[in-house]
Please model this.
Amino acid sequence: MDQKLPSTSSSASSGPIADLTYRNYDGPMELPTHRWWAIAKLCIRLATKKRGFWIASVISGYWYLILAAVFFFVDLQTQGSPLGVKNPIFANIVWKDQFLNAFSISQLLLFICALMLGAGAIANDNRAKALLVYLSKPCTKTDYLVGKWMSIFIPITGVVAVPTILFYGYCLMSYRTYGFWTDDPFLLPKLLGMILVPGFFHASVVLGISSLFDQGRMAGATYAGMYFIGLFFTKAMQVIHIVNSRHDRPVPFVDTLYYMSVDGLQIGFAKIILNTQGSTLFPIPQGPSQAARQPLIEIPSVGLILSLYFGISFLAMWLAWSRVRAVEVVG
Amino acid sequence: MIGAIFSQALREYLRARKILPWLLLTSLCYLFSAYLGQLQPGITAQGKYIVSSTILVYHIMALASAIYTTSIISQEVEQRTIVYLLTRPIPRPVLLLTRYLASVLVVYGIGVFGAVCSAAGSHTWSLLPHDLVAMLVGAFAYGGLFLAISLLFNRSMIICLLYAFGWEISVPSMPGEMYRLSIYSYLQSIANHPDVEINAAIAGLASPKSMHLITAWICMIIAIVGLAAFSAYWFQTHEFIGREDAE
Amino acid sequence: MESSSRGGGGRLSVHDIELKNVSRWYGEVIGLNDVTCTVGPGLTALLGMNGAGKSTLLRLITGQLRPTTGELLVGGMEPFANPAVYRLMGYCPEIDNFYEHYNGFQFVNFMARLQGFDGAHAKRRTAEVIEHVGMSERAHKKIAGYSKGMRQRIKLAQAMIHDPQIILLDEPLNGLDPVGRREFIDVLGDLADRGKTILVSSHILFEVEQMTRSILLLHRGRLLATGDLREIRGLIDKHPHKIRVETSDPRRLATYMLDRANVVSARFERSGTAVQFEVAEPDAFYTMLMNVIDDHQLLVQGYSSPDNNLESVFRYLVSN
Model:
């Protein structure tokens, strides 16, 4: 006779025999300060799995690569010059302007990185009702938002920082004799400040916009709309600036309006940090009529740029803060 | 059935939260063209209109097209509501092209509104009729291109935006015949704006190179028909399953 | 495996769903593996654990996907992007997504218009079908505010709007309360009685058991079993049938039964009022049991077959 004892159910643990089929986590709990990092890490991992992010990141530094190549070959061509004779091209270069140029040129690609990282950051959670899950854990709204913000800020800052620091190192080792160090000994801390500009702005704004939607696509479209409309506007201002310069009738207000875009604010901020209005790669001495053709716009007003930059960023952060709620509304 | 698809798409595209930002944006063209004289002393009325329409309205239209056209299918796929459309007795090409027509109409409407605002702001109406024609062609051409891209790629909106603002701004000012690869160049030929001083300045950004009007028309018609036919074929022969994906 | 599953037990209909060696790959992952079966009028349950391939099968039948290999016919036609098939078919997908800014009536009415109804007819039909699923009072509220159960009803309404011959339902009972489930099952029963071909996917065996005994059982992309539940159970030789007999003297009954060839084992319950036998041939066992009761004047209160249910069949088949 086959007489079996009743089998214990895997979920029943109230009997005398301990149920060992499932164990709760009994390891050390992380400190509350690390919870935002868990969220940030998860989002960064997801973002860095996207091939498009890596492509945009690598391409964003292309101007530094071109500069390095140009400098290398210009240097190579003049190596046969007599000792003590400096290369006239390097002698006229404004070094910090090269960083400003590369920073300006990378703006579109940094914006695309921001879209990929941040457009769906909160919108996708809204759609999946994942906020209910996040905020049902011992994880506060601050943890959640800081985590999400950092998951955009850290990668973008990294994307700006890597080529900038590498190029700085290259120039420091190769062109000290051409004034790279003496022209501006505080260039490195200034660059470190400039590096933070896109990450801070994009992370704040894209997060604010993302919190308004439940589709990443719509959040991305909205930010893209704002970005490109601003860009057209600054292009129009650039055209007007050129025409006005030709007729020697400058309108200073046009120069201010040139900074009224996502790119413009960041470039303006970078100009303030580096204290330069920028120049072309190889500035050649020229007459007034030629100089007028260069679309170089004056350094903007510090108060205006900083208040707009931080005003928009904090407004967007407040928007995200007010929109993130762990509530599912069913009528 | 076609009427139902068309009206549903139109209703979707004309929802206040979708259309109002565009109308608000394009209405700024009025202020821009009206006050351009303050920024650029000596500019003519036609010059104001041309700056406003060429630099702002055409590009706003391309942006609107990128956003509206990619939503024809991508939005349904992302919302996963595509299943309700694809399991109905409607030939897929009919479904696609009807929704495409609705989006073209809305994008054209946005362009027309912008052009009218620019004309009202600059107090010149003589150039408007040419632009209305060119914008209709533009709405179809951008729509056709972005529709094909949206069917081919998952993250189509980024590609469309890059095309609209990277390609369309830089390629027309490239040397040689490269400008022929840009829809914007054809539209400018069809709009056929007179040469004013501002045009020379725009040349540094996106120059409307000289192209014969007939050539521009033929190229645009071929492109529109070709892209629409390709999109219809692709939609008929490929699988489109709802998915949750971030753009 | 080639067999047919017929809840209604009717002849081969032109509305049958036919799969011949159908496989579907997603890159290197196989979603459905060499499935051959037909589904005819009546209610058939498509069973399987999560990831078994149920949704893939339904997407293939509804023409959203194409089979990688094999042949799939619905009403004698290939379903992929085929409008003629969609006139025969109504599909209630598993997803919970809608045009949220519509109300229930607008949504179903739009589906009716897409189905080809003219304006007035669409409205009339929408009102009828919404009443049928018990949503009349709430049909004019926005879908965004609907509960899960209300959404399920609206999905069913849009699937039934054109009175299709074939109705496919992907996990339709999710989110419904017990009363709603009962009503839903009754609606499906009515439709099956009217000769409709209904295929319902589910991974909740208890629910399926209430609906039908005709099943298609998928596991890891393969069709493990198809047909009537009892017939399938009868064919599983590896696991003897369990028969529980309630009697005041279980040990005496076991003594008489255990020397019979087809009785494999007996297990006594602690209560002392029942014994559970494992038997190879249940029909022969029941005859023997009656004889033993008669011969030895045993008092038997009742008997039942605890593993002649879907869950056991599912467990046995999946564990093989």
Notes: The longest helix of chain A spans residues 141-174.
